Amino acid sequence: MIKFSDKKIEDLKIEMNWKGNGSELDPIVINQAGPFPLTVKIYRSRLYYQIKNLTIEKLTCRNAHNISIENCIIKNLIISSCDNLTFLNNTILKLKIMFTKGSTFIDNKFAQIDKIKQNFYSTQVKPIGRQITTPLTCYTCCLLFLTISVFFSRTPTWFFGFIPLGVLAYLTYSNYIKIKRIRDRPDNIYINNVEV
Fold first, then answer.
1. Are residues 117 and 142 part of one domain?
2. Whole-angstrom Cα distance, residue 22 to residue 9?
3. Which residue among 12, 52, 87, 176 is least packed, with the fewest CB closer than 10 Å?
4. HEC letters along the chain
5. One domain for residues 162 and 95
6. In terms of domains, do 58 and 17 share one?
7. Is residue 169 domain-shared with residue 109, that is, in the same domain?
8. Domain that holds residue 75
9. Pair 7, 28 in one domain
10. Do residue 59 and residue 92 come from a single domain?
11. Domain count across the chain
């Protein structure tokens, strides 16, 4: 497995003999004909990458931007919290997209697309009846009950109620940030893709 981000790319460029400086006009080109790792993870990246003519067992893009993938065979593709990705003429056996907008899919062949819940990649609000049954809402109710119970327990350890309160605040804030991050981005574009 190979993992890389903008901070770790320089050493990897030398080791793998990749060309380009990562700018829009000179992207880092990954088109290795020799042995290439079967599992690749790109994360926290804003540099420009161009991946071509490879066979990849599993490719994960998490919080990555400005990546172009062309003429590749990808058995398992996971995209999370990304934008400005371009997929051109690839064969993708399994695709999963979460919190991603502003990407383009042109002339690709898909074998399976995981059906992601609508709230994972859009900002639409679900009806209250469906919100109550989500795991996050169940966790929220449990944490809130635990917090109230500890605060009113009249024991010397009442201040431990701040721990579930902090977890509750974190869960609420992280979900808000993910939705806010994709709210103003354009939708993904799909052109001439086929299912095989």
1. no
2. 10
3. 176
4. CEEECCCCHHHHHHHHCCECCCCCCCCEEECCCCCCCCEEEEEEECCCEEEECCEEEEEEEEEEEEEEEECCEEEEEEEECCEEEEEECCEEEEEEEECCCCCEEECCEEEEECCCCHHHHCCCCCCHHHHHCCHHHHHHHHHHHHHHHHHCCCCCCHHHHHHHHHHHHHHHHHHHHHHHHHHCCCCCEEECCEEC
5. no
6. yes
7. no
8. 2-121+187-195
9. yes
10. yes
11. 2
Q: Both 148 and 113 in a single domain?
A: no
Q: What is the pLDDT of residue 34?
A: 54
User: pLDDT by residue for the chain (196 residues), tens digit each?
Assistant: 788 788 888 888 888 888 889 899 999 998 875 556 678 899 888 999 999 988 899 999 998 999 999 999 999 999 988 888 999 999 999 988 887 888 899 999 988 776 554 444 443 344 434 444 455 566 667 767 776 776 677 777 766 667 777 777 777 777 666 666 556 567 888 888 888 7
> What pLDDT sits at residue 126?
43
- The residue count for the chain: 196
**Are 142 and 191 members of one domain?**
no
Residue 166: the pLDDT is: 76
